[in-house]
Amino acid sequence: MSVFILLLVLVIVIFAVKDIRLNLVSRPTFKMFKKVLPPLSQTEREAMEAGDVWWDGELFSGNPDWQVLHSYPKPELSEKERMFLDNEVETLLSMLDDYHIVQKDKDLPAEVWDYLKNQGFFALIIPEKFGGRQFSAIANSTIVAKIATKSLTAAVTVMVPNSLGPGELLFHYGTQEQQERWLPSLAKGDDVPCFALTGPEAGSDAGSIPDSGVVCKGEFEGQEVIGLRLNWSKRYITLAPVATVLGLAFKMYDPDGLLGKHKELGITCALIPTDHPGVETGERHYPLNMAFMNGTTYGKDVFIPLDWIIGGQQGAGRGWRMLVECLSAGRGISLPALSSATGHLCARMTSAYAMVRQQFGVSIGQFEGVQEALARIGGLTYSLESCRLMTAGAIDLKLSPSVVTAIAKYHMTEMGRTVMNDAMDIHSGKGIQVGPNNYLAHGYMGIPVSITVEGANILTRNLMIFGQGATRCHPFVLKEMEAAAMEDDDLALKEFDSLLLQHILFTAINASMAFIHGLTRSYFAKSPVCGATATYYKQLGRMSRGLAFSTDVAMLVLGGELKRKEMISARLGDVLSHLYLASCVLKRFEDEGRQQADLPFVKYAIELSLFEIGQAFDGFFKNFSNPVVNFILKRIVFPLGNHYQRPSDELAQEICEHMTQPGVFRNRLTHLCYVDDKAGTGVMENAFMAMHNTSAAFKRLKKWQRDGTLNRNHDIATAIDSALEKQLITDEQGKKLHAANNLRKQAIAVDNYQPGEL
């Protein structure tokens, strides 16, 4: 005991006396920190500094303030935005025949192009003073999602000018002259924009683009001016084949010092009319059978004036920061909208199909294997919509939360892929026969497009989420890195010493609280609410402690090596991601008034996220290089073991019961799904309603077949006729049963083609 007291006194003296602390702790730690600090490229540094820290910072703190989460405004549409959805968007959807668009015309019809331009679909984010709609991020997201449930091609065509496009860049960074020149024509649809970033050798590593712009003198409009000689080769550029104005990213060089002393100015963005001499619109791509315009653009020795740089000459070298911040908006609006649309469509149509389709004399929705997949569709759809709302809501707060939007992009597109795969499994043969009545095929084909664009998912998960999150969201690491980069060593050490003390206390508190919560199963953890969801707040708070502590240990032990240990760091990124996804679910549940019908879906979504958090931690512990540290970490975060489980079968069955019943809840869960009475979605919905309205009569019919009153080998139509003959049902009942059965057969039918027709 006396030894322990002496050690405690020694530790107190070391940390309490500044000179002793500086010499024994801070100075050696500072030297080690600078040594193991991972080297950052200029593009990495700019990406790290761009954007905002938001709720992700709370989750990384180990002690998230749930009242802050609840205080964020509920994302809602204005009256003007709702009217646009109810009128212009509905009109557009009625004009779309996606089978013809994709399989026959390979393009939107001319009248659809005209409607999109004339009604401001390309001007959703452009301010009203320039003729745009000036809609919120949540409206932009909702419009794209609604369109995507009918036509992915149309949705992508609308979303690109409203995400990473010249409009977005001009709005945030353009000069007044550039805004007045371009925004009105973009708003009216007189100009169609595209933005060229990706090239043959530069995909996810956009910072490695070889395209160049060299400062030189040249002739423009009859006068000699200082400008740029551009050379570029870009591919995968959406709308490039039809664009009239090209946003271009390139590396800018000034070898002759015409602008100053710097020879390499960095990535720069410029705006160029596509009819400018030397600009070449190249070949068209055909991305997985989707008909949206996508292709190549080239330019060789193209001279442009300096004032075509976005932001003018002051924008030279600022392109990478512009792109990172605008890509963040795109990840937070466009791709989440497409993924949420997948959930809405698949949930509504698959729940209907599970009731309408029969095998072995019963609806396939009664088979537990189908219920497992259908419940996953329902639970993930609730989570997808929750994440869409909260992430777009952050952008409407005038934030650019780069880590949050990377989480949304990666996990929502992956959840969308899971939902679509489950929907295809349940639809089986109907899902794979392409035709006008197949509402899944084109979405299935297009899933990898979302997975690939705006930063490939592998890159997003393995480098961006944790790579940025660990530094940006951590309360001390970025400040410590800034201290390490200071030129004045004495001032740097003083700053680092102050941060180190706070950092040590931060880590110690998180370690102790993670251990205590683990021993008590989070019984004493805080929750802002009572009732069914209180335990989830407590468990998520506990996992936040575990993440903060594990991250500190990983950075201390691995240092700069953690940057290259992608499998290790990505698992910590998964923990952060699922903390965010679960937070979105809880936020939506509160915003929508704690609807009791939502509870099974809330429970499913959060329990699945907790399970994934547990799996991520298990993988992190198992593969951590130092076995001693591994043992300690695991015992602190999960002292009684990892008990998180997948959602129960009982919960899955409860979800299926909700999804296969028409009514308010099913409509709320799938409210963005466009049901077209002239297409397969309308056929399926009508069959679902008819079968539900006659379900009691069909059950009696099946009972009579089982007990021998009717021939058990008769098909449904014959059984109905037999029941009529035996006067078991009235003529009116017989008409309703035949009508429902005909709708059922029409709904499960697939498209057929005559020989040679294709």
What is the structure about, briefly put?
With 758 residues, the protein is an alpha+beta fold. 59% of the residues lie in helices and 9% in strands. Helix 9 packs across helix 13 (319-356), helix 14 crosses helix 22 (566-591) and helix 15 (402-427) packs antiparallel against helix 17.
Notes on the protein architecture:
This protein is an alpha+beta fold. Among the domains are: 1-30, no CATH class; 37-68 and 474-643, no CATH class; 680-748, no CATH class. It is built from 30 helices and nine strands. The strands form two sheets. Strands 1, 2, 3, 4, 5, 6 and 7 form a seven-stranded mixed sheet that branches. The chain has a two-stranded antiparallel ribbon with strand order 8-9. Helix 13 (319-356) packs parallel to helix 15 (402-427), helix 14 crosses helix 22 (566-591) and helix 27 (680-693) packs antiparallel against helix 30 (731-748). It is flat. The termini are far apart. The mean pLDDT is 90.
Question: What attributes characterize this protein structure?
Answer:
758 residues, single chain, seven-stranded mixed beta sheet, alpha+beta, two-stranded antiparallel sheet
